[in-house]
Structures are given as structure tokens and as C-alpha cells.
Design a protein that fits this description.
- This is DUF192 domain-containing protein.
- It comes from Haloplanus rubicundus.
- Pfam families: DUF192 (PF02643).
- The protein is mostly beta strands and 162 residues long.
- The protein has a single domain, classed as Sandwich (Jelly Rolls), CATH 2.60.120.1140.
- 7% of the residues lie in helices and 43% in strands.
- It has two helices and nine strands.
- Strands 1, 3, 4, 5, 6, 7, 8 and 9 form an eight-stranded mixed β-sheet that branches.
- Strand 3 and strand 4 form a beta hairpin.
């Protein structure tokens, strides 16, 4: 998924929700974003600070990477994702342009608190649904991952460099 089509700057995006805790180790996706992406570990924590899940994420921190997003990726395994990093917190809109698989989109404010979770299916027609949310960060993971791990609005993330 990626920010909505270019106007001048990316608009805010939304996120998808996850549920029951899961720490499954998986293999790499068939097609991955590539070596020009930095990576980070994103730790998802409940409101009490208990670790719910960990995601190995490619970092999309430039407009070209954010626009492309995961659209060149064939699939993600549980525990894999993409972290969109913006200069500041704002209202954002994401769409499922050219996506081959569904996603959970997790919108996170500048303090690391999850503000919105969206479950985004693959678009079947030409219309692109805009998934909205307030965020400085948006984490995209396989659809259902937030439900499987128990992640919900009000939980937090911690970003660790790898």
C-alpha cells in the first residue's frame, strides 16, 4: 500500500487492525522491496507496555519509496512489513494501488501511539478506497496480523534500528 497519488505531498493514511499475540518466524516474501531500503524492527506494545509482536520492516522514508510502497512485493509473511516514516504528524490517506495482497494499515502518532487500524482488501475494481488516519508513521503488515497479535488502537510502537 502507499500514500494516495501525488498532489504535492503525501496525505495521511490509515491502518489495519490485528488481534491475538503471535511471534511466528517466517521466510522472506517472494519479492521484496530491495537493498536500497533501510530496515527497522518495530515492536508493538499494549497500553501496559507488554510486547504483543515484533515486525521486521522495510523503511519507506522518501516520497518515491512511499509512493511505491509494497506494490512491487508479491506477499508478506507474518512478522514482516513496511514502515512509512514522515517528517511530521498529519492527517494521511493511503490506497491499495497495484497491490497483490491485502494489508492491515496501522497509523501511529508522533508519540508512538496507534491512532487508527484499517483492514484493506485488494481493490477489485478501478476505484481506490482511501484509508485515512492521523500519523507520523504507518506500519503495513499482512491483513489479519493485528487481530492475530491483539494489537488495537491505543497500543504503542517502539522502533529499533537493525
Amino acid at each position: 500500500m502507499e500514500p494516495a497519488a501525488p498532489s504535492a505531498t503525501p496525505t495521511p493514511s490509515a491502518s489495519a487492525d490485528d488481534g491475538a499475540p503471535s511471534t511466528t518466524t517466517t521466510t522472506a516474501p517472494v519479492s521484496t522491496p530491495g537493498s536500497d531500503y533501510d530496515t527497522a524492527t518495530v515492536v508493538l506494545l499494549d497500553a501496559n507496555g507488554t510486547e504483543l509482536a515484533t515486525v521486521d520492516a522495510w523503511v519507506a522514508d522518501t516520497w518515491p519509496k512511499q509512493y511505491t510502497g509494497l506494490s512491487d512485493t508479491d506477499a508478506l509473511d507474518d512478522g514482516q512489513g513496511m514502515l512509512f516514516v514522515f517528517d511530521g504528524e498529519s492527517d494521511r490517506a493511503f490506497v491499495m494501488r497495484d497491490m497483490a495482497f491485502p494489508l492491515d494499515m496501522v497509523f501511529v502518532d508522533a508519540d508512538g501511539t496507534i491512532t487508527t487500524i484499517h483492514h484493506a482488501p485488494v481493490e477489485s475494481d478501478g476505484d481506490l478506497t482511501q484509508y485515512m488516519g492521523r500519523a507520523k508513521f504507518v506500519l503495513e503488515v499482512p491483513m489479519g496480523y493485528t487481530n492475530e497479535t491483539g494489537v488495537e488502537v491505543g497500543d504503542r510502537i517502539r522502533i529499533e534500528d537493525r
